[in-house]
TrEMBL record:
GO terms for cellular component: nucleus. The keyword DNA damage does not apply. It holds the Pfam family NAP. InterPro entries: NAP-like_sf, NAP_family. PANTHER family: TESTIS-SPECIFIC Y-ENCODED PROTEIN. It comes from the Eukaryota. Belongs to the nucleosome assembly protein (NAP) family. This is Uncharacterized protein. GO terms for biological process: double-strand break repair via homologous recombination; nucleosome assembly. Keywords: Chaperone. It comes from Fagus sylvatica. SUPFAM superfamilies: NAP-like. GO terms for molecular function: histone binding.
Length: 82
């Protein structure tokens, strides 16, 4: 595992840009619509966006990648499996 982490040195200069999805077409978020109860008057339906698992969540910004690599090194140091 340590060999794999050291081979990621070339990831230092990655440029990351956020994908701008069309409204309602994002593959990383799910739109939930809540309908009002049948007996309520003047109630509007509400919409809520929620993150969902997606292939596009695999790509992370470089700042988070560095933190993740540091965390992996710490976990490997403290693990019983060697």
């Amino acid at each position: 595992m340590m060999k794999r982490l050291s081979s990621l040195k070339y990831l230092k200069d990655i440029k990351w840009i956020e994908i701008e999805w069309y409204r309602g077409k994002s593959l990383t978020q799910k739109i939930l619509k809540k309908k009002p109860r049948k007996g309520s008057k003047n109630a509007k339906s509400s919409t809520k966006t929620e993150d969902c698992p997606s292939f596009f969540n695999f790509f992370i910004p470089p700042q988070s990648l560095r933190r993740r690599m540091i965390l992996m090194k710490i976990l490997l140091k403290n693990s019983k499996i060697k």
